[in-house]
């Protein structure tokens, strides 16, 4: 540790001499090296309303033309209990326009469930915000929640709708507490995969949970919707076992249900170890554990075995009509969030009367669906802000 000041001085000197890419890489290393204490919760935790900032720190690795902060803020879990959770806020540099900037609260795709798997912990906390540069150029403030139990310690949140959705809304509230961000009360939601699930729940909860925010619209790419159907469809390969391990471990922790009530003995024994590994950076280790379990992981159908069926249904979004426009992008070659599951979700939303823009992307897989949706997303967000969303793609009379 005694060499750390000299090392930091050296990398800062290199950053001052290189390109913006080199500057961000070096500053990102500094941000990650010095982040440890930020995630240590105060003892005792001070009381605070949801979205109240506990601490923030500027990030030197912000994209060119932007300013950014790592934030720690109050939120609530599925039981309504107070918690602290972390994330990142990014805003265009310079004064905000009259009326402030609209906030886009981003829901990130699966990176894991352990604290170190949080996007804000890494040396590039902006890398997983799909469309970030476009959103900043359009003048938005971007709030990116880590989700509870990631970054800062806290209760499990993986595919737990209220816990994740609350953290997405409270990230927007935290952004408004940063004067330099210039964030207004206008809110748009954007999420991919697990993040699509989180922002759909945020949209359902917004009117009651965060009535001071003016939700304008919600956009998703390959959102996790019918959880029981997705588990059934995916569990036959190594990726499905991996994602299943994250979900079953989180539900077991949040609801106190033993793993051996749904998993085989081998599956129940292996799941805690998988839940401690990150999807990015430890994928090979995850697959080493998961591969022998393919075909031998579930002890029953989670859509039928109680209380798992009830818990999965309670955490499946889309059971109520959304009062704001909804964009749903789905890749036709997605083998993780299956197209037929998303199609069924869109049909249910249409039947409920939600204004839906469905964006099928033939040949696009799960990893690229959010990026391929950007040419549609940006004008869609602008139109929704103006109050003139594109015509619904729902069938007439749906």
UniProtKB/TrEMBL annotation:
What Pfam families does UniProt report for this protein, alphabetically?
LIP (PF03583)
One Gene Ontology BP term is: lipid catabolic process
Q: Which SUPFAM superfamilies match?
A: alpha/beta-Hydrolases
Q: What residue range is the signal peptide?
A: none
Query: Which InterPro entries does the record match to this protein?
Result: AB_hydrolase_fold (IPR029058), Lipase_secreted (IPR005152)
Superkingdom assignment: Bacteria
Gene Ontology MF annotations: triacylglycerol lipase activity
Name of protein? Secretory lipase
Q: Which organism is it from?
A: Pseudonocardia dioxanivorans (strain ATCC 55486 / DSM 44775 / JCM 13855 / CB1190)
């Amino acid at each position: 540790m005694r060499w750390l000041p000299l090392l930091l001085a050296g990398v800062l000197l290199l950053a001052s001499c290189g390109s913006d890419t080199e500057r961000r890489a070096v500053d990102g290393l500094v941000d990650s090296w010095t982040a440890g204490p930020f995630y240590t919760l105060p003892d005792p935790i001070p009381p605070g309303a949801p979205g109240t900032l506990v601490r923030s720190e500027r990030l030197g690795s912000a994209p060119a033309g932007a300013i950014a902060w790592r934030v720690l803020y109050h939120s609530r879990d599925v039981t309504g209990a107070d918690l602290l959770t972390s994330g990142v806020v990014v805003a265009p540099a310079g004064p905000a326009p009259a009326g402030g900037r609209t906030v886009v609260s981003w829901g990130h795709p699966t990176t894991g469930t352990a604290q170190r798997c949080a996007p804000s912990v890494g040396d590039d906390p902006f890398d997983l915000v799909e469309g970030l540069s476009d959103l900043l150029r359009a003048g938005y403030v971007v709030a990116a929640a880590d989700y509870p139990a990631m970054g800062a310690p806290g209760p499990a949140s993986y595919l737990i709708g209220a816990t994740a959705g609350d953290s997405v809304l409270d990230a927007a509230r935290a952004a408004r507490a940063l004067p330099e961000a210039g964030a207004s009360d206008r809110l748009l939601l954007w999420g991919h995969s697990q993040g699509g699930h989180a922002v759909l729940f945020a949209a359902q909860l917004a009117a009651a949970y965060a009535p001071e925010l003016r939700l304008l619209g919600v956009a998703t790419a390959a959102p996790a919707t019918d959880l029981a159907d997705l588990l059934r469809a995916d569990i036959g390969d190594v990726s499905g076992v991996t994602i299943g391990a994250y979900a079953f471990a989180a539900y077991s922790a949040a609801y106190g249900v033993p793993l051996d009530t749904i998993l085989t003995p081998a599956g129940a024994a292996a799941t805690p170890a998988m839940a401690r590994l990150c999807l990015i950076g430890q994928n090979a280790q995850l697959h080493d554990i998961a591969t022998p379990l393919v075909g031998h992981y579930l002890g029953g159908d989670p859509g039928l075995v109680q209380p798992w069926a009830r818990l999965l249904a309670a955490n499946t979004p889309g059971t109520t009509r959304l009062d704001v426009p909804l964009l749903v992008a789905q890749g036709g070659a997605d083998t993780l969030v299956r197209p037929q599951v998303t199609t069924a979700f869109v049909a249910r939303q249409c039947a409920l009367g939600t204004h839906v823009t469905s964006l099928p992307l033939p040949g696009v897989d799960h990893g690229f669906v959010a990026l391929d949706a950007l040419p549609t997303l940006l004008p869609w967000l602008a139109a929704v802000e103006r109050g003139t969303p594109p015509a619904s793609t729902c069938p007439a009379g749906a």
